[in-house]
C-alpha cells in the first residue's frame, strides 16, 4: 500500500493492544489514535518511525455505541491516558481480552477465570512529572500526546489528590532548584503519609546542586512536608539522597521496611491489596515459600504469616532494605540476578510454593528452570500479559497446569493491565 500523507475516512474494526482503533485495510492495518470499533472517522495518515500506518484523528463522523465523553478535561492534549473515551463496560471487556488473547496466542486458557478486579481511578501514589522551568514558573505535567512538550495537568483523575496538591506547590518551590530552560523529571512517591521526591536532570545554574539549590530544597522540604529528596543527573545514575527528614516506611504484613529512594511499590494501595489478596488466596496455610523478584517485600511480608520465606531480588538497595527489616522473622534474603542465574530446580524443590513477580520483560530463564522443578504450586504476578503467556507456555510444557487467572486493573484508562496466574503440578 502506498498512500500520500493525507486524510481519509475510515471505519474502525478493532482495538489494538495500545488502545488505538484499528482499521483493517486490504493488506495493512491503520492504527487510529482515540478511535473505537464501530466508529467512522476521518484521520490524517502518516507512516511512523517503525513503518506502521498511523491515523491522527481529525473528526468522528459516526460514533461507535461504545463511545462516551472522556471525564478528564485534559484528555485531548495529555498523553497520560489512552481509553477514557470508551464506556466502562467496553473498557473492562477490552482489559480482560488483553490477557485472554495473549494466553490464547500461546494456546493457553486457565481452568478457572477468577472475577476481574477493576480499581477506581484516583489512587496512584507514585508518579513522574515532566518539569520545565521558564523564568519564574515551573510547569509540572505530562508530555502532550505525540509530543515531548509538557502539558499542565492540574486536574488529573488518576493521581492521588494529595500528590496533585503537592504538585501545585512545587511549581513555585522548584523555581530556584531547576535549571532555566531545561527539562527534568520529578518523581513523587507517597506512602503511609510520607512523601519522597526524586529529581532527575540538571539543577541550579551549573547543572548540579549548589548552595542555592541546597537551601531551596531545605525550604521546599519544610514548606511542602517532604520526607526525603534525592537527585540524579541522568536516569541511569543512582539517586543521591540530598536531604532526609523522615525515613520512608512501608508496611507489608509483618515487615516494616525503610524504603530506598525510587523503591518499587505497586502503583496504588488498592492494587497492592488486590494483588496480595489474590496471591494469599492460593498460598498454603503453612509451609516454606520463595518470593522471586521480591522488591521491597510486597508479597514477602504477608507470606511470612504462613511460614518461612526466601526473598530473592536483583536490586541491591531493595535487598538491603529487606535485610534491615528482617528482625527475628523467618526470612532469608538473597541478592541474585534471576535472568542470568535463575533459581535452579534442585534449589526450588524444598519450597511448598513459589511466588514470582518479574518486571515487564517477564521471567523466561526462571520459567525454564521452574518447568523442570517439582514445586507443587507456582503463583505468577505480571504486568505484561505477553511475557506472562510466553513464560506460562514454558511452565505448561514442563507439566504444570494453568489452574486459574485473575485480571487486576490498577492502571485505569491505560493499556496496561496486571494478572495473577496459578500453576499446579499435576
Ligand atoms: C514488578 S517488580 C515486583 C516487586 C515486588 N514483587 C512488588 O510487588 O513490590 C519486579 C522486581 O524485579 C526486580 N528485578 C528486575 N530484574 C531482575 C533480575 N534480573 N533479577 C532479580 N530481580 C530483578 C526489580 O528490582 C523489581 O523489584
Q: Can you describe this structure?
A:
Helix content is 23%, strand content 32%. Helix 1 runs parallel beside helix 9 (385-397), helix 2 (161-173) runs antiparallel to helix 3 (211-224) and helix 8 (364-371) packs parallel to helix 9 (385-397). The chain is α/β, with parallel strands linked by helices. A hairpin with a 7-residue loop joins strand 14 and strand 15 (240-244). The longest helix has 18 residues, at 88-105. Strands 7, 8, 18, 19, 20, 21, 22, 23 and 24 form a nine-stranded mixed beta sheet that branches. The chain has helices spanning 88-105, 161-173, 211-224, 269-280, 300-303, 316-325, 345-348, 364-371, 385-397, and strands at 7-11, 14-15, 21-24, 29-32, 40-47, 53-62, 112-113, 117-118, 126-134, 137-143, 150-152, 183-191, 194-200, 228-232, 240-244, 249-252, 255-258, 287-292, 307-313, 331-335, 353-356, 377-382, 400-409, 418-425. It folds into three domains: 7-67, Nucleic acid-binding proteins (OB fold (Dihydrolipoamide Acetyltransferase, E2P)); 91-120 and 265-425, Rossmann fold (3-Layer(aba) Sandwich); 126-244, OB fold (Dihydrolipoamide Acetyltransferase, E2P) (Beta Barrel), CATH 2.40.50.1070. The chain has nine helices and 24 strands. The termini are far apart. The structure holds S-adenosylmethionine.
Précis, in short:
This protein has 426 residues and is α/β, with parallel strands linked by helices. The chain has three domains: 61 residues, OB fold (Dihydrolipoamide Acetyltransferase, E2P) (Beta Barrel); 191 residues, Rossmann fold, CATH 3.40.50; 119 residues, OB fold (Dihydrolipoamide Acetyltransferase, E2P) (Beta Barrel). The chain contains nine helices and 24 strands.
Amino acid at each position: 500500500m502506498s498512500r500520500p500523507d493525507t486524510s481519509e475516512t475510515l471505519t474502525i474494526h478493532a482495538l489494538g493492544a495500545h488502545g488505538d482503533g484499528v482499521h483493517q485495510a486490504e493488506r495493512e492495518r491503520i492504527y487510529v489514535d482515540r478511535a473505537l470499533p464501530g466508529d467512522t472517522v476521518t484521520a490524517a495518515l502518516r507512516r511512523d518511525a517503525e513503518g506502521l500506518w498511523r491515523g491522527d484523528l481529525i473528526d468522528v463522523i459516526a460514533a461507535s455505541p461504545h463511545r462516551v465523553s472522556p471525564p478528564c478535561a485534559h484528555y485531548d492534549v495529555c498523553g497520560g491516558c489512552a481509553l477514557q473515551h470508551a464506556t466502562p463496560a467496553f473498557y473492562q471487556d477490552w482489559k480482560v481480552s488483553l490477557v485472554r488473547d495473549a494466553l490464547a496466542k500461546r494456546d493457553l486458557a486457565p481452568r478457572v477465570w477468577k472475577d476481574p478486579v477493576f480499581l477506581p481511578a484516583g489512587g496512584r501514589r507514585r508518579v513522574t512529572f515532566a518539569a520545565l522551568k521558564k523564568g519564574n514558573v515551573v510547569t509540572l505535567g505530562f508530555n502532550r500526546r505525540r509530543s515531548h512538550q509538557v502539558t499542565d495537568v492540574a486536574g488529573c483523575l488518576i493521581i492521588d489528590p494529595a500528590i496533585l496538591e503537592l504538585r501545585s506547590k512545587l511549581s513555585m518551590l522548584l523555581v530556584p532548584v531547576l535549571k532555566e530552560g531545561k527539562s527534568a523529571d520529578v518523581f513523587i512517591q507517597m506512602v503511609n503519609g510520607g512523601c519522597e521526591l526524586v529529581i532527575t536532570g540538571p539543577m541550579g545554574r551549573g547543572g548540579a546542586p549548589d548552595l542555592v539549590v541546597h537551601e531551596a530544597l531545605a525550604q521546599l522540604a519544610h514548606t511542602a512536608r517532604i520526607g526525603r529528596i534525592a537527585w540524579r543527573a541522568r536516569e541511569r545514575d543512582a539517586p543521591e539522597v540530598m536531604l532526609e527528614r523522615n525515613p520512608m516506611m512501608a508496611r507489608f504484613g509483618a515487615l516494616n521496611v525503610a524504603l530506598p529512594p525510587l523503591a518499587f511499590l505497586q502503583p496504588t494501595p488498592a492494587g497492592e491489596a488486590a494483588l496480595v489478596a489474590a496471591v494469599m488466596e492460593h498460598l498454603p496455610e503453612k509451609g516454606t515459600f520463595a518470593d522471586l523478584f521480591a522488591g521491597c517485600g510486597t508479597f514477602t511480608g504477608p507470606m511470612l504469616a504462613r511460614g518461612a520465606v526466601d526473598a530473592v531480588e536483583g536490586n541491591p538497595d531493595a535487598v538491603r532494605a529487606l535485610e534491615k527489616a528482617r528482625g527475628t522473622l523467618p526470612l532469608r534474603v538473597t541478592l541474585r540476578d534471576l535472568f542470568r542465574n535463575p533459581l535452579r530446580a534442585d534449589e526450588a524443590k524444598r519450597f511448598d510454593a513459589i511466588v514470582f513477580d518479574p518486571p515487564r520483560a517477564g521471567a523466561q530463564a526462571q520459567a525454564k528452570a521452574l518447568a523442570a522443578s517439582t514445586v507443587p504450586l507456582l503463583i505468577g504476578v505480571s504486568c505484561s500479559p505477553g511475557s506472562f503467556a510466553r513464560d506460562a507456555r514454558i511452565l505448561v510444557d514442563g507439566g504444570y497446569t494453568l489452574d486459574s487467572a485473575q485480571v487486576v486493573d490498577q492502571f485505569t484508562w491505560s493499556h496496561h493491565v496486571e494478572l495473577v496466574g496459578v500453576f499446579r503440578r499435576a
